[in-house]
Specification:
The chain is an alpha+beta fold and about 210 residues long. Helices cover about 20% and strands about 25% of the residues. The longest helix has about 40 residues, at about 1-40.
Length: about 210
Amino acid sequence: MSKTTSESGPKQRGGWRFLRDLAIIVVVALIASFLVKTFLVRSFYIPSGSMENTLLIGDRVLVNELVPGAVPLQRGDVVVFTDPGGWLGTGQGDDLIKRVIGLPGDRVSCCGSDGRLSVNGQEVDESYVVLAAGSDRVAANDFDVTVPKNHIWVMGDNRYESADSRAHGSVPVDDVVGRAFITTWPVSRWTVLSRHSEAWDRVPEPGKG
């Protein structure tokens, strides 16, 4: 009888340890998931066509909220930002998504003889931009601006259907929620969002163009 008891005791204790460890793992995983979703990564729904064809109406994207706090912004990044005021009408939410064209101090101008925009004197080959039928210009109207300190200049990829910094001015860096890095929905649209570094890495820093 004592032999039977001595054998079952360790087995029971082992079973309880397994259940305890499993419960700890589940709780830790839930907490980690909550923290990631709350503080590091958020999902956003695309309500308009201003970023076509990079992003379509109904797409969902994940946004890295470490940008720009822990990770610096880069030209070409696709970012979500809170409406600085007057960009959105009543009932349209609080957040927008556009591409970073100019960083603080950058001179952004458009359009050159070939229809491209320039940043700090460097023309940028924006292969992702949707052009108007019969036009080779990446923007309808000419402009020449210097981005203020602690601000960014943003534009939609669907330039002729985007009300962006050309209409509303630059965006305070403090209003940036994060950088969109992947399209998660629908499944057929799954893709990593590119900043098109091959074009943007050629842009010199302000004053060096």
